Amino acid sequence: MISTHNPATGQKLADYEELTKDGIEDALVRADTAYRSWRETGLDERCALLEKLAETYEANADRLARMCTKEMGKTLSSATAEVHKCATAFRHFAQEGPAMLDDITWQLGGGGTATGRWLPQGAVLAVMPWNFPYWQAVRFLAPTILAGNVGLLKHASSVQGCGALMEEMMVEAGAPDGLFQNLPIKSDAVADILADRRVVAATLTGSEGAGRAVAEQAGKHLKKVVLELGGSDPFIVMPSADLDDAVEQAVQARIQNTGQSCICGKRMIVHTDIYDSFMAKFTGAMQAVTTGDPYDDATDMGPLSSFEQRETVLDQIAKAQDEGAKLEFGGEALDAGAHAGGAYISAGVLTGIDLDGPMAKEEIFGPIAMVFRAEDIDHAIALANNIPFGLGSAVFTQDEVEQERFIRDIEAGMTAINQMLSSSAEAPFGGIKNSGHGRELAQFGLHTFMNLKTVMRLG
Q1: Can you list the residues of the chain whose pLDDT is less than 70?
Q2: Is 402 a catalytic residue?
Q3: Which residue of 37, 163, 251, 347 has the fewest CB atoms within a 10 Å radius of its CB?
Q4: Does residue 430 belong to any structural domain of this protein?
């Protein structure tokens, strides 16, 4: 049995019957049957389904958003925006995707041509996290449908209601049976599913440990895998930056989704010339953050996704303090009054982190900012790269020479200039180092699980 709970109240929401081995086999049969038909379906029909899915998500936006808020605690406004972002992704691949699947032709030196054709491969297993329960899954689902593949979703246990609703949306949009299935299973069932010949690839967003386990299984069975394993992204502010804008976006980066976003800056690296000014504005804004009922439009930040997640963050704060860091304010469990019963925590700021200590290299998945002082651009880049992760980064500078240095030298899959990093269906998404490998979204995400077949012709 898989149970879900409301992190804002601590109350149990629902129980979901875990799939048995027979149930998993039935799901794989349905997926394989759907693939045999869907792979031969024309692009027009695939795109029509994507358009219908966009309409279905929009028509059910409030229902989807409320389930998301109830299961993982994000504000209702944020959950609603996430649903509409999913609709945008479905439409993007419906409208722009076909051109991404055009044949590629090369002239051969010895005469004749070679043509590359994009062909589907089968069922793709997605192992997805709870922090953006719809968007994370749609990042794989939209291109999967367009490619002619089929999708199997192993969602986080805490958001089973969201996973079930996603499958319901597919049915409502008129998708063929088995084209997309939400599998109520636990992590121990993933290895056998990956081993099955009917599953051709996997994509995972989650922890390093989960990524290593899935990559090991995928490698064992020679199956392709895309991994997005989080990060502790640098957020660099240089003297030429618009300081007010940088502060505003730094605060948003730390409180968005209650700090539970892989690509929002977690380590604020500020040039010494503006460090004091930045800190005065930043700490004031962080202290003004309102934490409370996620259904209230006046709330900036809801609870963390679970009490376990809150304990993890509190333990990391204590660990940083043991290593000599100073907790400037916040970072406390909120248990009284309106926060009673929920997994609430106050926004906080850590300074003086030991650069050689473990916490300088860990990801704090909560509304806690780690702030570092940089002496110059070389020092800022060194601080940015002083971690095992390499997902995203954000740099605030009006100096074009500095911008090019950061683009070239920060070890990350993505860099945002004068804005906090975000994901979009139009741009490739992914990281390097311990943040994983492969790319989602754009044409690269579409092509990832397709067969580029080379066709040779004479004359």
Answers
A1: 459
A2: no
A3: 37
A4: no
